[in-house]
Every structure is written in C-alpha cells, then in structure tokens.
Amino acid sequence: MSKNASQVNSSAVNAGGNLSFFEKYLTLWVLLCILVGIAIGRTFPGVADALDAMSIYQVSIPIAVCLFFMMYPIMVKIDFSEAVRAARTPKPVLLTLGVNWLIKPFTMVVFAQFFLGWLFRPLIEGKEIIRGSEIALANSYIAGTILLGIAPCTAMVLLWGYLSYGNQGHTLVMAAVNALLMLFLYAPLGRWLLAANQMVVPWQTIVLSVLIYVGLPLAAGMYSRYWIFKHKGKAWFERRFLKYLSPVTTAALLITLVLLFAFKGELIVNNPLHILLIAVPLFIQTNFIFGITYVAAWKLKLFYEDAAPAALIGSSNHFEVAIATAVILFGLNSGAALATVVGVLIEVPVMLMLVEVCKRTAFWFPREPEKATLADPRCIKPFNS
C-alpha cells in the first residue's frame, strides 16, 4: 500500500472510533430500550395509563417533550445559508426531493396494500374503534405505514451521512429542505393518501402534529442558533454548545422508545406475528427506495460523497413525526401507532446495513474527497469492527 493510501486507511479507521459510545452501539441500545419498555408495560400497566392521561388535545405531553429534545439538537445544527451554495450543484438535492415526495409515498402505499391489505390479510384478524368508527386492524396498520412513507428523514440523516463518509454540507441542506417541505406537504399528502385508503382523518389534526413536532423544534433551533452566534460566537457554539447537546438526541430517542414500547408492551407480546408482518413491507420499501436512488445517482454521475447521503435520506423515515401523528390521529393503542413503532424497530439496523453497502460500493462513483467528512471508504473497516 502506498504512503497516501496508508494515510487514508489510518484516518478512516481512527474516524470510526470518533463515534460516541451511544452512536457506536446504537442498535444495541435500541434493542435494550425495546425490552425495557415491554417489561415496564407488562409489569406496571398502570404507568402507561397514567402517562397516556397526560395529554392536551390528544397530544401526549411525555412523548411531545421527548420528541422535541430529539429534534431540537438536529434542527439547531442546520445552517440554512448553505442552501445558497447547494444551488450551484442542485442534482443531489433534486434527486432526494423527487424520490421523497414523488415516488416514496406511493410505493409505500403499493407495498402496504399488497402485503397487509391482500397477502397477509387472512393472518390479520380483528377490528378496532377509532374516533367512534370500527375499522379493520389491517387498514389501521396500512395507515401507519403510510404515515411513515410520507415522512422523509430529517433527524437521523446526519448520523447516516457521517457514517457513510458523505458530504455533510449537502446532507444538511437536504435535511433542511425536507423539514421545510414537511410543513407544507405532509398534511395534504397524508390526508389524501389516508382518505384514499378509507382512513378519513381531520385535516387540522395533521397540521397540528407537523407544527408541534417539526415546526416548533425548527423555530427553536433557528432562533437559538442565531442568538448564540450573535452573543457567544460560532466557535463557542461548535466547541461548547454542540459538545453538550449531542447526547441529548440519543438520550431523547432512547427514552421515547422506552415510553412507546411501555405503552405497546402488551400489544407487542400478544401480536408477535403482526410485528413480523408489518416489518415485511417496511423492510422491502426501505431497500427498494435506497436501490432506485443509489442507481439514479450512479446514472447521474454524482460524486459518491453526494450519492450516499442522497440514497440514505431517501430510504430512511422520520419515524418521530410518523409516531406522533399516528398517536394524535388514531390513539396511543391503535394499530397505526403500532405500525409506526415497528418502523423504529427496523430503522436503525437496516440503515446501518445500507451504510455498509454504500461504503463497500464507493468505487462505483467518481470521488470528491475534499467534500467528504472523512477519507476514502474503499480503505476502511466497518465502523463497528
């Protein structure tokens, strides 16, 4: 190996060690939180009822607080001025937006209807009462998968972009644009697709959920970023503020998982087959969207540093907003809420798998290493080895 290649390999392997303790073993923490949540739900069923009662206009206060602290650290990192620079090379952003809003929602409907609405329908028996109306449990599951399919990821994408050695500038821009578009597109698109699948929901409720779980942390992040830059400076923001803020997202995610699975503990234990059935279309959808986006990026001759985060953003879901919306629309113990929680269950391990796919296929693409977070992915070991 040449001297330069040796340096590349050394920097990349060392960079893997820069992941925080929580980030490096995130899949393990997710699994532990699921088990702890189920145990709490089974052992202390009254806890879930008490927490569920803490709500305002069907918005769960404990979940709202957790989701805010999950979203705020991501939003405060977004530099919206980078959108100007991204306009000079708009292909990655346009590719991601096209996949997220013109393809992904509709393929999710197709996969959900095929598997949950037809192939697995005989295995999903039962009905539930939602807003005074009786609906089939399978339809409720389909509604949950739709809410996932129309929620492009804006939170965890920075982690996926970092792990895949992508262009973090474009990753930030794509996350910011998706967050803004969700404020305008999530409600009408959700109402239309849910209504088309016999799940009529109030328009105002979807708008409220988007404003609370996307708009509020976005506004707080933008204002606090402006205030800190003005009074403390950029150096203090990056070296001090972000250092202490970084663990907040992970901690909030883990606490949210404990709460959600505590609420769903009984339902999950009683319906292990349903969990598997819901996971099938979600798993296929994630890999399908990743595949078509990655191939499209290759055909467009994008640099790897832009292609990897574009494909990962397109394939991942903003499960925080999907969960919150499902809880508000259909209730904490609904099949729709359960389906969105299954999205959490498979999201992290599947996305980590796709990150590895990116790193091992980087040689397919032209390279622009000066814009990458780290060095050449072709020379690295898996980040968790």
Short description:
This protein has 16 helices and 4 strands. By secondary structure, the protein is mainly α. It has a single domain, classed as Na+/H+ antiporter like fold, CATH 1.20.1530.20.
Describe the structure.
The structure is a single chain. By secondary structure, the protein is mainly alpha-helical. It has a single domain (57-229, 262-372), classed as Na+/H+ antiporter like fold. The protein has helices spanning 3-16, 21-24, 26-43, 45-53, 61-76, 82-86, 91-119, 137-149, 157-163, 168-196, 203-231, 234-270, 272-299, 304-315, 319-330, 335-360, and strands at residues 55-56, 59-60, 127-130, 133-136.
Task: Identify the notable features of this structure and list them briefly.
385 residues; mainly alpha; Na+/H+ antiporter like fold; two-stranded antiparallel ribbon; globular; disordered C terminus
